[in-house]
Amino acid sequence: MPKKRFLLISILALFIFLTYYANAYDLPRFFPFNKENALSEWQEKIFKNKVLYRVEPKREGGYLLAKSDKACSGIFYKIKFNPKEYPFISWKWKILTFPKKDKNKDVVGGWLERDDYAARVYIIFPAFIFFNTKAIEYIWDETLPEGTILTSPYWHNIKLLVIESGRKNIGQWVIEERNIYQDYRQAFGSNAGGVGAIALMTDTDNTLSTAEALYKEIKVGFKK
């Protein structure tokens, strides 16, 4: 399983790189998920089984439903911009169900089975040598403290930033706004290159459980 997911992540990184330099800057972009065809320009990558991603355009102003049952797949959107010039991304998300994790497991000492999250927002930075592609994952976890930064068990060039923690706001819309450029410097200790894609994922393949989250009003590539 880890090797399979690493291979697919590598293929995705190469695909984004090959299209990155062919695309012009296209900013800002707003994804309200308020139309039936709102996912027509998004693409899916399946790691293990398919997560249900469904647009609900007439509910609460429109949102994207993500429901995972022992599955791991993500959707991504190719977008090109310089995060130093356009550093901000914002969105709203709501957690309905967290994955069931073994809270007695040691996160630091081998936490592959705990690498499931009800909601993830990815920022992907393609590189000429595609194995040097990097990514930031913004996550909402049930137990990890807010502000925690982790390295993905699948790829050292993926950093996980816990920006929401706990069950206090479960079932409620939470607004996020992040400075991508600053977060990259904090996570990797260097300046960010160009962004080539964003992605969303709700997954429960490691815990063999279920999770459900909603996403809406994603705005990417803008100045504050």
Give the key terms.
12% helix; mainly beta; single chain; 6-stranded antiparallel β-sheet
Please, could you describe this protein's structure?
The chain is mainly beta and 224 residues long. Helices cover 12% and strands 42% of the residues. It contains 2 helices and 13 strands; from the N terminus they run H-E-E-E-E-E-E-E-E-E-E-E-H-E-E. It has helices at 2-20, 180-188, and strands at residues 29-31, 43-48, 52-56, 63-69, 72-81, 88-97, 119-125, 134-141, 149-151, 158-165, 174-179, 195-203, 210-222. It has a 7-stranded mixed beta sheet with strand order 2-5-12-7-8-10-9. Strands 1, 3, 4, 6, 11 and 13 form a 6-stranded antiparallel beta sheet that branches. The protein is globular, with a radius of gyration of 16 Å.
Show the helix and strand layout.
Blueprint lengths: L1 H19 L8 E3 L11 E6 L3 E5 L6 E7 L2 E10 L6 E10 L21 E7 L8 E8 L7 E3 L6 E8 L8 E6 H9 L6 E9 L6 E13 L2
Parallel strand pairs: 8-10
Antiparallel strand pairs: 1-13, 2-5, 3-4, 4-13, 5-12, 6-11, 6-13, 7-8, 7-12, 9-10
Short description:
The chain is mainly beta.
Number of continuous helical runs: 2
Structural class from helices and strands?
Answer: mainly beta
Instruction: Give the distance, in angstroms, between the N- and C-terminal Cα atoms.
Output: 41 Å
* Shape type: globular
Tell me the fraction of residues in β-strands, as a range.
35-45%
| Lateral arrangement of strands in the main beta sheet | 2-5-12-7-8-10-9
Largest sheet composition: 7 strands, mixed
Order of H and E elements? HEEEEEEEEEEEHEE
Number of strands: 13
Helix content: 10-25%
Uncertain segments: 106-110
Radius of gyration: 16 Å
Task: Give the averaged pLDDT, no decimals.
Answer: 86
